[in-house]
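Render this sequence as a predicted structure.
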Amino acid sequence: MDRKLVVNAPLAIAHGHRVEVSERIDELTGEAVILSVIDLDTRIRYRRPEEPRGQVSRWLGRVVDCTVTIGAGHGSHTSLTVEADGDGRGATSARTALHGADAAVDAAKAEADRWGGGDRVPEPEPERFW
């Protein structure tokens, strides 16, 4: 499965090179954040300057397409298409799914609270007079 990575930096990686991508899940957005890309053929490492926080997942793949856009007003960015070995999303997609499941549980609890839930005892019916 191909994955498209967009990085706000110029990463010139040749077609066919094997890469190792490290990423983590952003707690606020639930999206994968790329921490580093290592070109395993040239041993060049591209990484963020800050230290990674949280749990990091790594996956391997082969570069299918690389486009580096250089611009003065918008800065440089790279669009990299990587064919992942195996699933290629492993731990990251599992964490994303769990994050989504937790959000669904919280939403269901809020909806149940709004509707009053099913654990209420019904009020007794008043006596009828004929």
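Summary. The beta strands are 2-7, 18-25, 32-39, 44-47, 57-69, 77-84. Residues 22 and 58 are 4 Å apart (CA to CA).
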